[in-house]
Amino acid sequence: MIPKECKRLAEVDFPIAEVSKHSVREKSIRHGHPSTLHLWWARRPLAACRAMLLGLLLPDPADPFCPGAFKVQVRRILSRLYQGAADASDADLRRWLLKFIGDFANWDLSTDQGYLQAGRDLVKAAHGEEPPLVVDPFAGGGSIPLEALRLGCDAFASDLNPVACLILKVMLEDIPRYGPELAEELRRVGAEIKKQAEKELAEFYPKDSDGATPIAYLWARIVKCESPNCGAEIPLVRSFWLCKKANRKRALRYKVVCSGNESPAIEFEIFEPKTDKEVSNGTVTRAKATCPACHIVLPPERVRAQLSEQRGGADVLFDAKRNRVGGARLLAVVTLKPGEQGRHYRLPTERDYQAVWNAQKRLKAILDEWERSGRKGLCPVPDEPLPLMSGTFNVPIYGMSRWGDLFAARQKAAMLTLATLIERVGREETTGVLREVLSLSLGKVLRHCNVVSKWHRGSETVAGAFGIQALPMSWDFPEMFPLVDYAGGLSDALEDVNEAVSAVATAAGSVGQIEIADAAEHPLPDVTVSVWFTDPPYYFAIPYADLSDFFFVWLKRALPRHPGLVDRFDPGNPLTHKNRELCEMAHWDPDRYAHKNQKFFEEGMRAAFAEGRRVLREDGVGCVVFAHKTTEGWEALLSGMSQAGWTITGSWPVATERGARLRARESAALATSVHLVCRPRPENAPVGDWADVLRELPKRVGDWMERLQSEGIRGADLVFACIGPALEIFSRYSRVETADGREVKLAEYLEKVWEVVGRTALEQVLGTAEAMARNSAVGALEEDARLTALFLWTLQSTNGNAADIGAQEAEEGEISDEDDEEETTPHRKAKGYTLIFDVVRRFAQPLGINLPKWEGRIIETKKGIVRLLPVVERAKQLFGEDGAKVTADWIEHNSQKNLQLVLFPELEEQRAPRVRRRSRGKISVTPSAVEGNAKQEATTLDRVHAAMLLQAGGQTNALRALIKAEQERGPDFLRLANALSALYPKGSEEKRLLDAMLLAVSR
Prior knowledge:
The chain is of the alpha+beta class. Among the domains are: 1-129, no CATH class; 205-510 and 540-571, no CATH class; 771-868, no CATH class; 871-999, no CATH class. The protein is 41% helix and 15% strand. The chain has a seven-stranded mixed β-sheet, sandwiched between helices. Strands 3, 4, 13, 14 and 17 form a five-stranded antiparallel β-sheet that branches. Helix 7 packs across helix 13 and helix 10 (350-372) crosses helix 11 (409-423). The relative contact order is 0.09. This is DUF1156 domain-containing protein.
């Protein structure tokens, strides 16, 4: 057993770069990955969880308290994989263990019997015959407990959410208990369900007369033009493209047909465009609809009003003779033809509408029967209320107020058929498990068979719901045939689940334990847990409960008597539990969730940390994953941990996000997730001296920054990763006091941490031997240069792409009336780089940077976001109304004079100096302006920006003259220019200009 005094491996070292590489790669792995069992939001990569668990479970062989018997067994175990491990010294043995952790993080080795057995043997060598218990109170998608089972540990996973707990039960209990035979049985029963569904749904999805199989129906919602002389139907279409493959382009073309006194009609044809210009723009953008007939624009409020009258407008309206008279309009049908490759497109026929009418008739009969039965049991179609969450669930403003409204009539009939067939699977124990697994397959079909999905014109597939963590409006939508064999269909869903079942069955060494539980009231007794490892929610980042209701309402109908699909805290609640859910939601729905504010979240997290401290054994270890990018989020987390009695003993940032992920397109969630390793703080922990803490802090931060940068960690990831090591100093004490006995609070200490990180960063990017000799590396350049350098340094990204740390977590998931794809008009976004104001303020204040002084000059602050103005927007400030060309002439002829005379004409108190042209290209300066006292002196950054603009304008002679004057002035100009060149993102216009400008410097 590991002695209490012995450090765990994760407290002393960790293979950051290797684990990060495998974690990022894992995001693109689909086949056989447990994540394909069912969608869950913000899953942790298995690679990171597996590696961190090994670091938490294994002692450091180089620690003097490490048992000798453990080291003997480690040499024996690792010698099976690595030549040379058998005779390793203690220090080398640590390196071999770290190599094993990094290698085993590889997905390809996660089920390799050699590595799998070695991992389990190492854990057994450290903990003896009794497996250590790993607990995750916010288990969600189950990455942490699954990896605990893979390593031979016991796992206890809990969550408040019933959908999460069903996923956990299947993955951690059902699959390990029944093994590969479950996959075989699932394949057999799944095939029977599909065969029966094909019979029952045949009349709703008929084949074409030529034998082609329709696989998707492309619909558009309809509003009426309200122009008095028009009244045409406006099909709400984002794009008229059907397929945008380079070698096979298809699109819709429309014409307006007028007949007599009737409203104009819009008719379509399918054609093959030779150029993109041949395809008309869509009819709807940002909820504004343009009439194809009269070109009048219908404002958003009228679009919403009309669609509200149609309950979202996804269903067809028929008259008594089965003729379409309104509602959604079918634009095209996508088919597969026997013996031919690729998708084919055709216009709709009366037969297509007849199939929809048949589905509506079937659905009405089902609902009528339910009404006649006295409404016994659940309504067959989900009638639970759908919340209006501004910016996240906007569909209710278009009349979709019930969860069932997210599905068209034929989709409802199909989903009811599948749910009923799953519910009818036999009643034995094993078939009860089969129903649970089959219901997860239904979840994947639901994602693609709804009226908020989109047709992906590049891959010619249905892009299902939850491409982002929200439910945006989709004006036109594909209705997929749910029994197709490609992505999103039942066959594909069953195969995904089958592969995941096989992979989990191979990985899991034992059966886990699952329970619906509140993390703030953990069900386990005191001092029973070896490892408390969790990834908690982050304020209002993701509304898990409301998102999961999309699946929950159908799972209840497929598993009507399942004990886990009820709210144990409120049995009358028809949806998932929300009152106790640790998610700040008051801003989304203040009427329902007034109590779920910031204080509620922070107190709940504090209680959860206290519960973790209570259940942990005295010799146990904890780990908390955190990826929040606001300083308030970090302070709340660390304050909760400190008050709950935890001491930070390690901090490891692991890259977990791909740079190209959807959320990274417009904002920058951190590329890394910081894993804070912690232990229970001893009851007799000493009181710390504030002066001693401050003396130790700079070296700790400096050493850590150097280590992290060597591992490829950059920018904001590096900033937040440094907070953990800094907290190791502070949190080891029961409290920290100044010389006069005043207690230093965590917030005050964190301000010092930010100051040290900022100073260290500036010394790295701006410091020189000369500046260091003056003992003023940070103050060697003016405030604006320091602010710009820190801004760009913070924006550097671990994944190699500079990204704006622009919006807060809630905004990353927010949507507007339309979640546009690449084909539609993109949102206009101001140029430049952005950081949240809080991050900028944290750096600026302790370094003596006065932010208001630079507002409108190099930064612009709006709605809590600070934008670093791009150089091109400073042209007027630097050169005035007359522009760079005139100024360049002046510089060229007056290079020995004070450059202040032409810089900042817009900001100076006495407008200086107004440069004017005379005849024959001569230049003059207004004498009165030159004599006046300038309000502001041009800074080094101003002169660098001026040089960049001269470079952009091709003013070569003036640029050389300016550079020569700056070289004579001193080294600061070139030092700053070179520093900024290293900081600006590769490929950016600013870097290009800087590098080109520096080529003009005489050597």
